[in-house]
Design brief:
Blueprint: H1 19-29, E1 38-40, E2 54-56, H2 59-67, E3 71-77, E4 80-85, E5 102-107, E6 110-115, E7 122-128, E8 137-141, E9 147-151, E10 158-168, E11 176-178, E12 185-188
Parallel strand pairs: 1-2
Antiparallel strand pairs: 1-4, 3-4, 5-6, 6-9, 7-8, 7-10, 10-11, 10-12
């Protein structure tokens, strides 16, 4: 079986230039992008998760990676190391996530979204008023539910809806893996 390869896109800029904002938007709007995650010795900021924004390492762990030549590049900035590993495990191949089958029905200023159960995973529902999901809103659904009612929608407006399953990887650091998005469904709210 031939391995499918993509293209590498490098986003570069000064600190605070908006690289992270751009990447978050690409990852939110398109399901065929993957983000290469750097390693660092700095402390996680509030809301950051290991394996999502960075792989957070101790100084000793990072210096061992340097000694074993495991980094494409690295630098020390403000007493912290930052670097790009040659390879790392993201766990997606360990979980066979499938996109759920989705149905949507209109209610008064609301839409009920239902989907087929995919094992015992969690789900993420995304909805927007345009087919490219620009400015989309997300609803995370836990407890293995297979439906959610999205409220406070604009009457007589068309919405685009899609769902994907989510699971924690087998790795100890509880990273999340996502399926592809389901087929997009449309609904015009009553």
């Amino acid at each position: 079986m031939r391995e499918k390869k993509g293209i590498l896109i490098v986003v570069s800029g000064f600190s605070g230039a908006g690289k992270g904002t751009l990447m978050k938007k690409l990852m939110q709007d398109y399901d065929n992008y993957a983000l290469s995650i750097s390693a660092t010795t700095r402390q996680p900021r509030v809301g950051e998760e290991d394996g999502r924004e960075y792989f957070f390492k101790t100084k000793d762990e990072f210096e061992k990676m340097i000694a074993r030549d495991e980094l494409i590049e690295y630098a020390r900035y403000v007493n912290n190391y930052y670097g790009k590993q040659y390879k790392y495990e993201i766990g997606v191949k360990k979980i066979n996530l499938k996109a759920p089958t989705v149905s949507v029905s209109a209610g008064k200023s609301s839409a009920k979204v239902s989907w087929s159960k995919v094992n015992n995973y969690r789900y993420e529902v995304q909805y927007a008023t345009n087919s490219k999901f620009q400015g989309a809103k997300k609803v995370s659904v836990h407890d293995q539910k297979t439906s959610v009612t999205i409220k406070y929608l604009t009457s007589k407006k068309k919405y685009y809806v899609r769902v994907r399953s989510c699971a924690k990887t087998e790795n100890d650091n509880n990273k999340k893996a996502y399926s592809a998005w389901s087929k997009v469904k449309t609904v015009t709210v009553k």
